[in-house]
Amino acid sequence: MAVEVYVAPGEGASDALLDWLEVEEVVADLHDVRDESTLAGAIAAGAFPFPVTIVGEEMIRGFDPVRLRYALFGGEEAGAGVSVGVDSDGRPVVTEVARGSLAEDAGLEEGDIVLDLGGYRSFSIEQLRNVLEAGRPITLGVRRGSELLRLSLPPREMAA
Q1: For residue 145, what are the contacts with CB-CB under 8 A and spacing of at least 6?
Q2: Counting Cβ atoms within 10 Å, is residue 12 exposed (0-12), middle (13-18) or buried (19+)?
Q3: Final residue belonging to a domain, choices 56, 72, 88
Q4: How far is CA 60 from the centre of its chain?
Q5: Chunked in runs of 10, what are the mean pLDDT values of the chain (160 residues)?
Q6: pLDDT for position 7
Q7: Does residue 32 contact residue 39 with C-beta atoms inside 8 Å?
Q8: Model confidence pTM above 0.70
Q9: What 3-state class would DSSP assign to 62?
Q10: Final residue of a domain: which of 52, 72, 92?
Q11: Whose CA is closest to 82, among 73, 94, 74?
Q12: 43, 47, 49, 64 - which has most CB atoms within 10 Å?
């Protein structure tokens, strides 16, 4: 998958992104926006403000390691038999539901966007993962297409 990065080296967020890409060993086509023709092309393409990373069809503005990780490396198992990624607005989106899992029992489906976790609308992917891995009952607010749903995950049964 092609990865294009528009950066202004020497600027805080651009340098942070370049360092992160190096640590994660991501090969990318780098475009230095200090060059006038590169800058004009980037602005015409909507790749502004900088830094901007384009992964496939997704454009990530700024340095957002969570969205970058999901765009580059895919979704991640979040517990209770569900894998999640991040949508363009940074919200968790269900990418896979395991057969026979708590997530399937609750009615979660691929493409559901998790809007709230136990009534809390502000939460991180890590908090979602921690709650789901704990196996405690929880109610999730999800958007499925134009529908808003409340889905309850049952507690995980512990082995005796």
Answers
A1: none
A2: exposed
A3: 72
A4: 11
A5: 90 93 91 93 86 89 82 71 81 87 90 93 83 86 96 72
A6: 95
A7: no
A8: no
A9: coil
A10: 72
A11: 94
A12: 47
Bridge partner residues of 96 (DSSP): 83
What is the pLDDT, as a whole number, of residue 76?
63
Strand order in the sheet with 92-97: 76-79, 82-86, 92-97, 113-117, 138-144, 147-153
pLDDT at 39: 92
Q: How many domains does the chain have?
A: 2
* Distances 145 to 98, 107, 112, 125, 142 between C-alpha atoms, Å: 21, 14, 8, 21, 10
Q: Which helix (H) or strand (E) holds 31?
A: strand 29-32
Looking at the fold, whether 81 and 122 belong to one and the same domain comes out as yes
Q: Is 158 domain-assigned?
A: no
